[in-house]
Amino acid sequence: MDTREPLNIRSTKTALTEKLTSAEMGKLWATYMGNSMSKCYLHYYLQHVEDKDIKHLLKKAYNLCSEFLNTIEAIFKKENFPIPKGFSIEEDLNLDAPQLFEDEFYVHYLKYTAKAGISIYNVAVPLVFRKDVKEFFTYCMEATMALIEQIKELLMTKGFISKPPIIPIPEKTDFVQKDFLNGYFGHVRPLHALEVAHLYDNIENNVASKALIMAFSQVTKNEEIRELFIRGKNFTHKHVEHYMDKLHNEDLPAPSFLDHLVTTSTVSPFSEKIMLFHKVDMFSMKIRSFGNSVAVNGRHDIGFMYTRGLMQIASFVEDAAKLMIKNGWMEHPPYAAKRDTLN
Description:
- The protein is an all-alpha fold and 343 residues long.
- It has 2 domains: 22-157, Ferritin, CATH 1.20.1260.10; 180-326, Ferritin.
- It contains 9 helices and no strands.
- Helix 6 runs antiparallel to helix 7.
- The N and C termini lie far apart (59 Å).
- The model has no long low-confidence stretch (mean pLDDT 92).
- Pfam families: DUF3231.
- This is DUF3231 family protein.
């Protein structure tokens, strides 16, 4: 397996007056919060994993989280920027809790969260200008991409996953006809390659998401949060079924559910705060994923399916955010000056 050298931020500010931009602050803050959360989950997984290959991968991901957090802290301290509270093993983990997931789940989880990390870093790279921040996010991209390659290799080697469906190579270059957008009426064309790719990607993401939120609903002691998690579990299950149907209707295979990888434990290893944050964070990533799917889609039925799912997810994220605010768990991101209150 590839072992990358630790990040060494060589540059300092190119000018004494160069401050962090809003994009740099925002993306560093979001990266800190996400990796602070991930480090806690990975710490718990490492207490129970038995498969040595999976354990090696979890350790690598854990070390990357630690490295990313340390680098961001160094940048923030240089700017007298307050270090976010984030999450901690002491406050957000119960390491005495029994095993909640089977070993295989950890690999699917790593791919699910690594793709979310790539999404953040991918947006950050074109937006940041300061050399140390640019170097950091470039490194995050490269290190996470290397990790994803190792995750995919392990998934395939152990037979945990199948590749996206195979479709025929076109016989010739062609142009679409007027029925290209049909989805409900008239002649409905077969799915094109990009539609198949995003259906597969959404299934892969959502089966991991469903297993995770099902586990959360199983162990939470807060009834209001439990009801929200069950709601999220139910519509996520329906979304996956819709995506699978689209592939199966054209005799294409789809990834399977992962529910069987959740044990029957009802003792929570995680605080209510970190579980709720996880679903707000990852469901927010689903909104971006749906946007990417809609952008390359051509059929009306698929577009409507994604739009309806997007509305359900946006409603869930809002309700979850309200619960976090109600409990005093939501940290405030950096924000612009409210100048009308300045005297």
